[in-house]
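Task: encode each sequence below as structure tokens.

Item 1
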Amino acid sequence: MTKSFNPKKNHLLASLPDAEFQRWLPKLELFELSLGKVLYEPGVTLNYVYFPITAIVSLLYEMENGASAEIAVVGNEGLVGVSLFMGGGSTPSRAVVQSAGHGFRLSAAAMKDEFDRAGPVLHLLLRYTQALLTQMAQTAVCNRHHSLDKQLCRWLLLSMDRLEGNELVMTQELISNMLGVRREGVTEAATRLQVAGLIRYSRGRITVLDRPGLEKRTCECYAVVKNECDRLLPPILAK
């Protein structure tokens, strides 16, 4: 296994005690997360949980008319598929790769077995789930009460926290689907951020030029999500 695909580049896996990590290692399967790949659909029983290392996955709710909105993002800080070990087996949301890369996956049977062992793995996974639920709740509040500019800043910051580097490969159409707004609105918001010198947007690539500036421009929702993640999870997860 090459260094670039080291499972410990996923911070949740890196936070496992050594004995647990060594037990998991033979069960982890390297998996390509291509742009737009659907990891699970609403109501479908999950066969795997996924641990991204260089990709970002969006958790989305889709309405009957086809409209959708993102409820959370998952990257190298965590895992996709918490409903598997929380007892539900499936979820009404769908998981779609929003930024391509790689990750590792663990079978449903292996994940359930590890969770049922209790001990440090159970507590780590429950704390991660609480952090994820906080992100979902704060996203709902943000989408209801804050401007699109602030939502876009929050979304960019959360994405940057879950990737190495400062660049996202993402079209405005995809961003509009994630935020549940018109594409024209995303264009206007991105243009304002670019004029302010905070980002550079070109041909589906967004480069963050001034992260402190984004943090000043966003709403309190970003800090709430980050602080809760830092509080609940081991220090290695904090970026």
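Item 2
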Amino acid sequence: MDGSPSVGRLTRDERAEGWRAPGQDHGWLNPLYERFLLRLLVKKELRVRYRGSVLGMLWSYVKPAVQFVVFFIALGVFLQLNKGMPAYAVYLFSGIVVVNLFGEVFGNCTRSITGNQALVSKIYLPGELFPWSSMIVALVHFVPQLLVLVIGALLYGWVPSPTALVAFVLGMLILLLLTMGLGMLGAALNAAYRDIENFVDLITMVATWLSPVMYRITLVKDSLGDSIWWWLYALNPLTIAVELFHTAFWRYGPLVVEGAVEDPSLIPPEGPFGYWWVGLLTAAAVFAIGTVVFERSKRRFAQEL
């Protein structure tokens, strides 16, 4: 024996410097331990997505802008939903950015394993890096939309406040936990059953219209009354996230400036943050379920692809 280290094992000095033996799996903490690989995957996804594109990142502005114009004309002007609702443009766009982020994170995460088939089946990479990199790419696209929303709200007299900040943070936390949980669950199932990604598109479309994005939630309450259907709608985490964004950029912004905040039909009776605790608990449960299913399925990804 010459005292040299065995293949695949690290010396004491290498361990002291933070080196790790290749192939170690840290489960759902892999994105934290493998930050360098995560950054590489994010850069790869951004380059691939905009390869050969003339507008590039400008599509982050074009798509929500077209959505906003279509919805505002069809619903705000033709159906006159903007009448009697102050700053309807801010109300509408603050909901649009939520459902857009929901749809992109959910859809991209679901397709993250099948979309990286060559990497998953040929080399070892922690499986969690793929849905997490997809989520980060979606956040990169979300930032320009958020910037447009902030500028639009400022034009209506919005001034940042502690209430608005807390509502925004809660809304983002609920939204990301929910979408990452659903996305990791979808990614695990989509590796075995390709039909799942088609269901994701349907769910995103339904979520856009069943969330209080283009209409006030009070209209739903008036229609459903105090039935079980109303409570299922009101306690949906996506509904709660949309309403928290409304609180952040609409209720405690333009409505205060225009003096309409006293209107009881514009402020939820349960307070400015609504049922945020229900949304947070539900989203956390979905995230935990999605993570567990993904962890148990990832070892079969190479064979299933």
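Check on item 2: Residues 25-304 form one domain. The CA atoms of residues 77 and 110 lie 36 Å apart.
End of task.
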